[in-house]
Amino acid sequence: MTSIDFPELSEAANNWNLDNLYDDLAVYKSLPISDFEKKCLCALLCRRNISYIALRLKWAVGSVRTELCRGLYQYLKALTSVEKIVWNNVPDLLEVRYRKNKSLLLNQDINLTVELESEYKVTSIVATIENEMLRRLDADVPESKDILLNVQVVIDYGDYKYQTNDYVAAIKSYKEAVVLDISCLGILNKIASCYYQLHLYDEAQIMCNFVLAYPATDEVKVDSYNLLGVICQELASQDYKDLYVQSAIYFFKQAIINSRGLNVIPAWNIVELLLAFSRNEPSYIPRAKLAFYDFKKIASQTNSNFQAYRESIIKEAVSLSDNGLDEWLLQQLNDLSEIFAIQ
Fold this sequence. Notes:
The chain is an all-alpha fold.
């Protein structure tokens, strides 16, 4: 792949002392770093996220994460003496020693973990909601149609802010909406998603668990469990532990159960998860095959939501099929679009 195909190679070279960095990382690897590792490193130095790298390399997102976790991240930990590497902190860790011009930013669209104002942290929001629940119970406050109408307007504004990546503003709107109508527990999942996007994983998990502790619709429970699974998968990609993988599978399966076996998203997430981490644990391959059968069973049901997500899942399957899988899985992934062709 040339710099034309992967422009971050030249962009990083213009701003970083790459030769020195490559040599220093090679010391901890005991070998020169690979072309794959160089491309990933250059992309990270340009503040490109893992999804972008996967798209450029035509890999599955989970596979890129796994390779980073077991390879490049380990060398970076040794080089920087930092215990935990996250994709968006790599430039900051290396800036002092390897950046050519420290006054320049490589990319203005920086997605760093932010410090939320206390009133928008999960503990404050949960306390506010619980106090509002008590107030309404004590006062026996009836629902108002005007309030419900206003709630939807506030939610729509929060959705707009979320789509523009202004997650803090989205949290503010969603909090306002749920205080207006505390029966809208599904809005709390939206807040949890904002926390996830801001890399505030503890906050996101606490919020999802709060939602699950109260009576909620199956649809809301599915969203909570699926997000908990995604968070555990992300934690596993950053610092591989079998516990994270097993926890992710548990949450995804709970999402499937609460969808009455009709939601393909958590089912596909299990397949992708096990395949991505099979390089760490070959024992995951048989489980991935079983998970694929479960996925096909759900997808084949006429009232499942497979058709709504068919295109994105097939794209992911094509990406996964490029990663050296065994023959059976490779054939299954290649045949996916034909098996579930739109009638």
